[in-house]
Structure formats: structure tokens, C-alpha cells
Amino acid sequence: MHLYSYLLQMMELELKKLEDTIKSIHEEMFYLREREEQMQNINRQTNSRMGWLSFLSLGICLSVAGLQLWHLKTFFERKKLL
């Protein structure tokens, strides 16, 4: 009977260790899910900002091109080449 009791205690100890390990893994999985969600939100925000920045850059380039055309036109009109 003593051996049986000892084996039972050893199994109980191993099961508690396994339970602790499972709890630890479970908590880590929840933490990783939260981090993944945060990273996805940051990724979406960054993509959105890059989209707006590209449109802003395009607008600035077109504005500068328009100013260059206007400047060249007025320059040639003053020189009476146009």
C-alpha cells in the first residue's frame, strides 16, 4: 500500500507540473495574440500614413511642375520669344 501511495503522489506531482506548464503556455499565447493585434494595428496605421504621404508627395511634385511651367512661360514672354 505504501508503494501505491508513493506512486500516486508522484503522479499527482507530475500532473501539477504539467498543469503549471499548460497555464504558462496558455498565458503566453494570450500575450502573443495581444501583441499580434497591436502589431497589426500599427501596420495598418503605417500603411495608411504612407498612402497619404504618397498623395501629398504627388501633389507637391505636380505643384512644382506647374510653377516651373508658369515661370518658363513668363520668362520667355518677357524675352519676347513666345
UniProtKB/TrEMBL annotation:
Location of the GOLD domain: 8-77
UniProt xrefs under InterPro entries: Emp24-like, GOLD_dom
Annotated transmembrane regions: 52-72
Gene Ontology cellular component annotations, sorted alphabetically: membrane
Subcellular location: Membrane
Keywords: Membrane, Signal, Transmembrane, Transmembrane helix
Transport in keyword set: no
Keyword field contains Signal: yes
Main location: membrane
Recorded family membership: Belongs to the EMP24/GP25L family.
Protein name: GOLD domain-containing protein
Source species of the chain: Aegilops tauschii subsp. strangulata (Goatgrass)
Taxon lineage: Eukaryota, Viridiplantae, Streptophyta, Embryophyta, Tracheophyta
